[in-house]
Amino acid sequence: MRIAVFCSSSPTIDSKYVDLAFELGAAVAAQSWELVTGGGHISMMGAVSRGARESGGRTVGVIPQALVDIEFADHSNDELHIVLTMGERKAMITEIADAFITLPGGAGTLEEFFEIWVGRYLKFHNKPIVILDPFGIYRPLHELVEHLEIENFIKPGMRGLISWTTNVADAIKACV
């Protein structure tokens, strides 16, 4: 099984988020699963891959050439797929992953999460979607999603396609 993780690549975030990513990577490896990321080596993205590899896991990165050119690529990945665009990156990650876990992150992380969620709702895939949020970063998002459903902007059942978790063990369980 391959687990894609969406997360921050910001070098300015609190170290507790980087530690969370490392812990998740180690947990993915402990299941003998492969980890799929956006292929970067810094911040949470790098930490999740290091956590997997240091626990004996296999990692797959998918990164656009423009990010390779600015020395952002994690060349320690067991597989590193270099693509041209962010769209190609997301398409490849969606295709090769069997489940998706979203960690705290910014606009790019949210964009990846929303695309996967909408894709599942529209039946382009039927893969588990998990948000791992032990620090409450996504609490306002969770409330917004509930509010959008109440106001009929989100169809009944769409909210239920997301597993909201607060610890690594529950996130791992939600992937199967």
Question: How are the SSEs ordered, and which strands pair?
Answer:
Layout: E1 2-6, H1 15-30, E2 34-37, H2 43-54, E3 58-64, H3 65-69, E4 79-83, H4 86-96, E5 99-102, H5 107-121, E6 129-132, H6 139-150, E7 162-165, H7 168-174
Parallel strand pairs: 1-2, 1-5, 2-3, 3-4, 5-6, 6-7
Helix pairs in contact: 1-2
Describe this structure in words.
The protein has 176 residues and is of the alpha/beta class. The protein has one domain: Rossmann fold (3-Layer(aba) Sandwich). Helix content is 44%, strand content 19%. It is built from seven helices and seven strands, in the order E-H-E-H-E-H-E-H-E-H-E-H-E-H. A seven-stranded parallel sheet has the order 4-3-2-1-5-6-7, with helices on both faces. Helix 2 (43-54) links the parallel strand 2 (34-37) and strand 3. The radius of gyration is 15 Å and the shape is globular.
